Amino acid sequence: MCGRYVITKPVTKTASIVKTNIKVDDSDNYNAHPTQKLPIIKPYTNGKALEIAEWGLVPEWSKKLENFKPLINARLETLMEKITFKNLIQTSRCLVLADGYYEWKKEEKEKTPYYFTKEDDSLMLFAAIFQKNQFCIITRQASIETSEIHKREPLIINKSQIANYLNIKKEAISVLSSIKPPKLKFHQISKDVNNPMNNDPRLIKAI
User: Fold this and answer.
1) Would you say 54 and 45 are in contact if contact means Cβ atoms under 8 Å apart?
2) What ranges do the domains of the chain cover?
3) With 70 as the cut, is the pLDDT of residue 65 above it?
4) How far apart are CA 172 and CA 165, in angstroms?
5) Residue 110 to residue 106: CA distance in whole angstroms
6) What gap in Å lies between CA 180 and CA 176, rounded to an integer?
7) Residue 170's CB: how many other CB atoms inside 10 A?
8) 130-155: per-residue pLDDT in tens?
9) Residue closest to 97 by CA, chosen among 20, 174, 11, 164
10) Are the CB atoms for 207 and 113 separated by under 8 Å?
11) Which of 52, 40, 36 is nearest to 3 (CA)?
């Protein structure tokens, strides 16, 4: 799964991608987590827009359930099997921005956090779906290189595939399945990241 990530200077880093910025500032977030309002890229009139949305989908049917947790991830392999995801992947696609993301390796008595980035440290674009002002990140089976830490990873879109993915006339599963995961690097970090209240550059430093 993908449950925490980092995004810094979202306005600056998407200047060449989006046409319109809708109330997004160029602030840094070193511990982006579910229920936060975070920057995403959505289709927009004659282009793409940078907007703010809350991480976690709450489908209409779930409002009748007690203690329902917002859906923060959707598996690529089952996108077309679940009604909520099936409808949104056909009509409401977006991209989530990240410098890198966090994942935890399960060990005998504890979980050890790691920070993942692209080998070239370039901006990550996670495939995602949205509903009104909420979003959910699509994940896939982890590559051999990263599976030693966790079995899942966010589905990272290549810049060359942005238009294809956001174009709802294109069959999303075919587009997503054809994308090869980029080369990633990772290192162990402090357990300070476990507390969402901690939010500074020290979180991504190797230990």
Assistant:
1) no
2) 5-204
3) no
4) 6
5) 6
6) 9
7) 14
8) 999 999 999 999 988 889 899 999 99
9) 11
10) no
11) 36
Identify the architecture of domain 5-204 in CATH.
Answer: Alpha-Beta Complex (3.90)
DSSP for the chain reads: ----EEE--HHHHTTTT-SEE-S-----EEEE-TTSEEEEEEEETTEEEEEEEEESB--GGGGGSTTPPPB-EEEGGGTTTSHHHHHHHHH-EEEEEESEEEEEEE-SS-EEEEEEEETT-PPEEEEEEEETTEEEEEEEEPPTTTTTT-SEEE-BPPGGGHHHHH-TTS-HHHHHHTPPPPPEEEEE--GGGGSTT--SGGGGS--
Tokens 């290549």 sit on residue: 158
Q: Which residue in the block uniquely carries the two structure tokens 């990140």?
A: 137
pLDDT above 90 for 167: yes
Give the mean model confidence (pLDDT) for residues 70-80: 94
Non-local (6+) Cβ contacts of 129 within 8 A are 57, 74, 85, 88, 89, 92, 93, 94, 135, 136, 138
Which residues, including other chains, have CB under 8 Å from residue 82's CB and lie 6 or more apart? Answer: 74
Residue range 84-106, pLDDT digits in tens: 899 999 999 999 999 999 999 99
DSSP string, 133-171: TEEEEEEEEPPTTTTTT-SEEE-BPPGGGHHHHH-TTS-
Separation of alpha carbons 151 and 184, rounded Å: 14
Distance of alpha carbon 56 from alpha carbon 74, whole angstroms: 10
Pairing of β 73-75 and β 134-141: parallel
